[in-house]
Amino acid sequence: EPGKRPKGVVELFTSQGCNSCPPADEYLSQLALEGDVVALSYHVDYWDYLGWRDTLATSDNTQRQHQYSRAFGTRSVYTPQAIINGRQEVNGAKRTLVDDAINEMADTKDGMIVDVDVSYSGDTLVVETSGVEGWSGDAHVVLVYFDRATDVKIERGKNSGRRFTYLNSVNAFHTAGKWHGKATRLELPMSEISRKAPGGC
Questions:
Q1: Measured between alpha carbons, how far is 177 from 129 in angstroms, rounded to an integer?
Q2: Separation between Cα atoms, residue 142 and residue 132, nearest integer Å
Q3: According to the 3-state scheme, what is the secondary structure of 44-90?
Q4: What stretches of the chain show up as alpha helix (H) in DSSP?
Q5: What are the distances in angstroms from CA 28 to CA 98, 123, 190?
Q6: Rounded to two decimals, what is the model's pTM?
Q7: b/e burial code for range 18-27 (CB count within 10 A of at least 16 → b)
Q8: N or C: which end of the chain has fewer CB within 10 A?
Q9: In the predicted model, is pLDDT for residue 194 greater than 80?
């Protein structure tokens, strides 16, 4: 909804070959439809050897999860893993844990404290952010490309015979710039975005 700040960002690392993932996939779809949070599904490829090659997985998604693992100081990755606001990881199939993490961060510095507005000016994408008084450090402004809905029939592996419509499946992402705590305006030519986005923007 324009002008409304989301409650949080949920990034779910999942796989069509993971038999623990369907409940998490269903919950992420619910969050996506409700629209109160930014709900993104990152399909990973390290379970492909189990008999089904995830049709939405990318190696970049897997690398993103490994980057989170290093940032959190954990030794391994798993599915379904939910990252809340880039700050906390929980089991993505446990709805209470996801909801609690979102709510606990909502009114803190780990919550959604920056307003972001995206618009078009001719053939340029314009991203504008608010500032936060007293902020130290910086953050990346990341553009994420995703498919709103993808219907998949899983024919082999642990979820063989299952058909599911995955929502907000990420197929690419890249850093558009940095935010240093102050109001920021980034201008990105659509030609550059189309080059990086699968199938265009």
A1: 11
A2: 18
A3: CCCCHHHCCCCCCCCHHHHHHHHHHHHHHCCCCCCCCEEEECCCEEE
A4: 22-34, 59-72, 95-105, 190-196
A5: 10, 33, 30
A6: 0.92
A7: beebbebbeb
A8: N
A9: no
